[in-house]
Amino acid sequence: xxxxxxxxxxxxxxxxxxxxxxxxxxxxxxxxxxxxxxxxxxxxxxxxxxxxxxxxxxxxxxxxxxxxxxxxxxxxxxxxxxxxxxxxxxxxxxxxxxxxxxxxxxxxxxxxxxxxxxxxxxxxxxxxxxxxxxxxxxxxxxxxxxxxxxxxxxxxxxxxxxxxxxxxxxxxxxxxxxxxxxxxxxxx
Length: 188
Hints:
Elements: E1 2-3, E2 12-15, E3 18-28, E4 36-43, E5 49-55, E6 59-62, E7 65-76, E8 79-84, E9 90-94, E10 109-115, E11 121-125, E12 129-137, E13 150-155, E14 160-164, E15 172-176, E16 181-186
């Protein structure tokens, strides 16, 4: 058993007869009244996100997990196939278990959390940044930059990202997987 002081991002807990992964949390100590922890939880079975508030010191049932490195092989409809990089076993996960499936290209190495009780995969953690090539974007118009102007671009995985006007087709860009946002252009 853990308490609210053990809450951290990525922790998997049992809550309301389901398993949830903590996506965000905030410890709040108001001037009046007891402290509490505001959390955003994502169900690892359905992919739904809920908000919940735990009072300080509340007991939570955490789940022991192991992390393993897997290589993303290919998508097949709503099913995504991965291979363990150590023993080459393959597993399949539903798209709802993935945080940002549209930023994952074939060959990407991800970390999969596995429940130690039953060996079931719980969720997939992407690397903090991925480098993808821009496959389509409109050319930027000179003199159109009053302030941080952006334009939509499609990357090789099919995801649409807002990028600065100087980005062209064929450029490789670094994308923050947590926010799904452009960070920088990669020079070759």
